[in-house]
Each structure stands twice: as structure tokens, then as C-alpha cells.
Amino acid sequence: MSRTVYVNGAYLPEEEAKISVFDRGFLMADAVYEVTSVLGGKLIDFDGHAARLARSLSELDMQSPVTRDELLAIHREMVARNGIEDGLVYLQVTRGNPGDRDFAFPDPAKVPSGIVLFTQSKPGLADNPAAKVGMKVISIPDIRWGRRDIKTVQLLYPSMGKMMAKKAGCDDAWFTEDGAVTEGTSNNAYIVKGGTIITRQLSEDILHGITRAAVLRFANEAQMIVEERPFTIDEAKAADEAFVTSASAFVMPVVEIDGVKLGSGKPGPVATRLREIYLDESRKTAV
Ligand code: PDD
To answer: Residue 74 to residues 11, 96, 282: CA-CA distances in angstroms?
Structure first.
């Protein structure tokens, strides 16, 4: 069945949804994005994603084509039109189509930014069997640019990282810089040692995960101890357990790093509990 895709104000069958070859998102990766999960037909952490989108746009001097309320209405309309029970809404805002290729940003008064949304149906997203087994990760050097806090569509190196992981018989890669883990290819990274949850502090080095913010809030509320600081890949290999968070994976246990099994080699109790709490609590506030 053809999906309905949103392009600059119009809801179109996916075959008819088109943007220009001169769009700066296509030519320059001059675009930002968000991925919001849908559970039971409702949007998870919508406000966090809308707020981060506004921040990404402002850091790049890009204009928002819609208000927060319009964005929510478009998200909801997309979920309804595509009959999404469980899945994802992908949103991309680009600096638009200046009609030619030029390194300089176009005048926003003359070239409006563009907006595209599409959905991905993933029945049973919250019951992903991978959460029962856990993921295997490899570590690779973080050679991405220095503003990883801005959610741009420059995803070539993260895609390469994912392929390196697959080639090594693993599920994902963790990036390291100066011996310390920054984050996963498309998720934030955590280890657990002696009951303490350790994750890198927010800076321009990592994406400020919306799931991360919620999970750390729930961990604090559950009286778990959280340390926000860099951790080395060696420290990670010696950890009791590890996990990642993202809008599409929620809380996903990691059971092996560079071939080294963590603890029993099975998903740990902290990751398992946080996954349950996150899914329960975020469903309650879903819109
Ligand atoms: N990725 N770090 C990176 C590099 C990411 O790409 C993502 C999200 C995260 C987690 O952020 P959040 O919790 O807000 O989803 C951390 C999305 C899911 C993606 O690219 O598909």
C-alpha cells in the first residue's frame, strides 16, 4: 500500500512526493531531522523532539517552516492517514531549493525552508525480540564533525559504522574519541558498574537524546545512581552491563563489546528495568 507523505503543505501518495535536485538537503546535507516513535497510535516524547528541532534549526540559522502546534497537527495527521499503530514518524527540514548550487546560504526571505514527513509502520515496536537477547557492538573511531549536538542528515559515517558492525557479525558500533565512548551510530551509550549508571555528559560531542533525558529522569526518580561523565572503552568492556537509548530502540541492552561479553552475556537487570519504566511512563504522556 502506498504511504501518504507530507511535502511542504501537501499530503501526497509517496509516488508523487518529490523535491528538487537543487534542494540543499540533497546537495549539501543542509538539513536537520527528527524521528519520533508511535506506540498505540500516539506520539512518544513529542515535545522533546519539537524542542530539539527548534534548537537544531536555530544553531544553523534555518527558519522553521511550521510552528510547534502545526508540527504536532501534521504528525497526528500523518499517523492517522497512514494508520500507524506502532512505528516511527520521520521529519526533515531543509534549507530549501535556491534553484542552483552555491555554498552561501540563500536569503530565507526568498528561499523558504522545506519540510518533509513520512511514516514507517513497525507493528510490535515495543516488543522487539532483540531486547531479550541484547546487542553486540564494536568500537570505531569517531571521525564525525564537531557539532554532533545538531541533528543533521550527515549520516554517512554512522551508516559506514553500521556496515562495519555488520561485517564483524555485530549489531551496531560505538564511537570512541581519545579512548572514551562518545555515543552509538544512532543512539546514546551507557554502562552500568556496581549499580551506577554511567553515560557521557551533554556537550557538542554527542546528540542530546530525547530518550536519554527521559530515561535519566526516570532513573533518578527510581533512586538509581547516575554519573554523567566520559567512560573509556576499556571501562565499558569491564562493566556489569551496558545499553543504548534512542527513539526507535527505546532502551536496548548491549551484551558484548569488541567480542568481550559483559557480565553473564545476557541483558542486565538495570537495562531491563529501565526499558520497562521508560515504555510504561512514556506511554502515559504520549500524545
Ligand atoms: N537517532 N545519538 C545519535 C547519533 C542519534 O542519531 C540518535 C537518534 C540518538 C538518540 O536520540 P533520541 O533519543 O532523541 O532518539 C543519539 C535516530 C533514532 C535516528 O537517526 O534514526
So the answer is: 9, 19, 21
